[in-house]
Amino acid sequence: MKCDLSEMSSKKSRRMQVCSALALAGLGLAAVLAGTGPASAAGTVGDEQYRPAIHFTPKQNWMNDPNGMVYHNGVYHLYYQHNPSGNTWGNMSWGHATSTDLTHWKEQPLAIATDDQQDIFSGSVVVDKDNTSGFGTAENPPMVAIFTSAYKDASPYRGLQAQSLAYSLDEGQTWTKYSANPVLNRNSANFRDPKVFWYDSPNGGGYWVMAAVEATEHKVLLYKSGNLKDWTLLSEFGPANATGGLWECPDLFPLAVDGDPANVKWVMVVNINPGGVAGGSAGQYFVGRFDGTTFTSESTKASDTLPTGTPVAGFNDGTFNGWTVNNEPGNVKNGPFGDAPAAGTLPGQNAVTGFAGAGLINSFNDGDWPVGSMNSPAFTVGSDYLNFLVGGGQHPRVSDKLDNTPPPGDLLFSGFEVPDGSTLADAGWTGTGELAPNFQPATAGGDFYIGAKRINTFETGGAPGDDRQGTMTSPSFTVSRNFMSMLVGGGHRDATSGQLLEAQLVVNGNVVRTLAGDDSGALNWKGWDVSEFAGQQAQLRIVDQATGGWGHLTLDHVMLTDQAAVPRSDETTVNLVVDGKVVRTATGANSEVLDWASWNVSEFKGRQASIRVVDNNRFGWGHILADEFVASSRPATPRLETYDWLDYGRDYYASVSFANMPQDQRIMLGWMNNWDYANAIPTSPWRSAMSLPRQVGLTQTAAGPRLVQKAVQQVDSLGTKSSYSEKRARSITPGTHVLPSAAWGQVQKIDVTFAPGTAAKSGITVLGSGNSSTVIGYDKATGKLYVDRTKSGNTAFHPLFTSVDSAPVTPDASGNVKLSIYVDRSSVEVFAQNGLRTITDQVFPEQGASQVALFAEGGTAQLKSITVKPLTQSMFVPDTTVKKNRP
């Protein structure tokens, strides 16, 4: 993914340089595009909190997709999407790093830079050993980069994405763009990510093959060329399996099943965002045949049928069949739900799929703006499960509050509604820099403010923008109630950023409370318990030392209240209501593809219930889809869980394989992040890491040949000896049992085998402290391995970060679950059952958290064996002579 285009619910111009999620909120576009946050670091490079020790990260600034990975003359080259000017997405160029062993990476100078005509999006590099392109000579054949040109307004190709070339004659260090670019142009705004390889024809000879995507059409397009410059369409693949987001970063390669050269299958990798199995970004794959022209999948899943059970609600007769519909008045159309079910896709909406029958609930009527709700007739709960199809926006239920009314209390500072022609300076505020109070209040920016005026540090000083800085302090007031509540929007800054952006409560000259926005233009209720300061004098101070995207704060309607403010729920949800209370809730996945959700409702059997569908969101993905409510004895299986995924975690995306490797070697590597929260992870001065390189193969399973993965041997070589081991089986009794300190660590490999036994859940925790840990466990009832990072440390930086990610795992013939776990300061990569399933997740643990523990819940499990090996840091270490590891 080259930019977070997750808000793709409507068909509109998607210029490649626009990050919709940010632009919708009204912050300065130039700041978003440049990603111009200062790269300030604390401590020595390589030793910062959260800095990976064995995963590649750039010294500073933003990184996303791996590009152009190639092995040549004993050196592994890793190119990657990079912003050389800031720590958020923008200025897309190709960064470059090299290694002789896949673990010790050396960052090289910028390889291919953005210019006034184009950004340099993802692609691949080949070694043109026969000089088919003519860019080199027989004695010095070129390395050729095939990349996507994302054309800017200054280009005659503005708004398009097309494939271009650059070549290097000095081992990939410097690159020259081909003068006749682009070499392949479909006049498309979403044609990208070329992966090129040489295909040896069984009939002799061969040619170059390119796999690229039409992202919004969910297609991989295959082309052939004899010279890398002239391309002819071979065939198309897709749509197939997961289509809930953009298709990106394809790959196509052969693998021998279980090493048998007489049984070779081809693997088609297609990355997708959003729409991954764990939410947001992910990679899926297909196994099949490639005949030099067409890829034929043998693992595409057929469409499912409705789960067995009793229909509670369908929408196939052209009516809502007794549901009460509350559409917001005053909009162009009767939105959000209209007067009758939708037949599918509504005007201006991307294609809606995955529903059943002739109709469904679709709250995109009149776009994302209108809000409203729907309520079903009451029914008696008679089954264990309620299954239904859901899609649309990912905005979970937060509270019962669906409006913006303030809590009862005393309004401070007149809500900033000073008389026209006056400023906050006239109201007794003081300030510094461009936040001097004579520039405030603002009358522009933000949403869900009250009245006409508010503080907005974007609209201050000279020209509006995120780089405006200063402080502003209110007159004194008496703390007369238990809580202080206010509407807050705009940005925030993590402590590691070196910037300050917050509202402060100052008592006796000391800052005693702080809060900030959530990188959103929508203001929402926040506040503090201030009861301990009752009767004291206090001031409110606004501090904006931030620059770059979301470098501003918006504030309105500050109040002293007796009760804590309840945040407004901007939800797009489906809810089960029993006795007037919401007892179950579900939301979409920022996808127009509906998928099955299930609620266990057995505890409510015999009671009256109703279904409430709520659309209370006006912005990107501000709609909900729902269909086919069925009361069943068993839960429905989400379709996403039936597809084949490279990884079941949240943080393995844009994964492709190294080129120019021997035929029997396939090493893949992915971007260890997720577009749901990529720009917000709390790292500085860098943002994002790559996964560990993985050796991949095919093995025969009951479902057919499927991928197996393991970290390359060079990673394991970073661990010389174990610090802790147990070889004899023993019980894991209910509870959490911290292992001796010899097992603790922040950079380590843990091999553990356990049997669930009678335990409902069992496993291991890592990166633990007294308050938090990352939980890696097995759920016996569901048959799933899971990584739970809900209490893993710092999770509050983005509402979509907290997650429990799971993968179906079957214990072996002895009833054992076997895991290899790589822990590296801010990530865990879990390989289960010899690599048949993997889960990769970022985590941001508390400072110094390193405890390792075993646990069991609801019964007793058995530990069969555990071995812990500390891994030696391979990144940002003094230059040493590293032995070349040839493939």
Topology:
Blueprint: H1 20-23, H2 29-34, E1 61-72, E2 75-83, E3 93-99, E4 106-112, E5 118-127, E6 143-151, E7 161-168, E8 176-177, E9 191-200, E10 206-214, E11 219-225, E12 232-237, E13 246-256, E14 264-273, E15 282-290, E16 295-297, E17 310-313, E18 324-327, E19 361-362, E20 372-375, E21 379-380, E22 385-392, E23 409-411, E24 430-433, E25 455-456, E26 470-473, E27 477-478, E28 483-490, E29 501-507, E30 510-515, E31 520-529, E32 537-544, E33 553-561, E34 572-578, E35 581-587, E36 591-600, E37 608-615, E38 624-632, E39 653-657, E40 667-672, E41 686-687, E42 689-690, E43 694-701, E44 704-711, H3 713-716, E45 724-726, E46 730-732, E47 735-738, E48 747-755, E49 761-768, E50 774-779, E51 784-788, E52 804-808, E53 817-824, E54 827-832, E55 837-842, E56 851-857, E57 861-870
Parallel strand pairs: 1-41
Antiparallel strand pairs: 1-2, 2-3, 3-4, 5-6, 6-7, 7-8, 9-10, 10-11, 11-12, 13-14, 14-15, 15-16, 17-38, 18-20, 19-38, 20-37, 21-37, 22-36, 22-38, 23-33, 24-26, 25-33, 26-32, 27-32, 28-31, 28-33, 29-30, 29-32, 34-35, 34-37, 39-40, 40-42, 40-43, 43-44, 45-57, 46-57, 47-56, 48-53, 48-57, 49-50, ...
